[in-house]
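Why does residue order matter? Because the sequence determines the fold. Keep that principle in mind as you read this record.
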Amino acid sequence: LTLSGRRNSIGELKDQDIYMRVDLINLPAGEHLMKISDRNIDLPRGIKIDGIVPQNIKVNLKALGPDQISK
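Structure:
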């Protein structure tokens, strides 16, 4: 990510302050290429995204067996 904002806001930014969300609902097991945009990323107020590289991430989903599903 390339970010911009006030110098003190950027300087105080920690890894745990950045959240990325991807919707995996209804995706079957297997490999998927997910596009990342600024809509997928949550940042603290006052910080904005100037660039995202890479713009795609690879996600590999595996089906769980019946004995692996928690209730």
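The mean pLDDT is 91.
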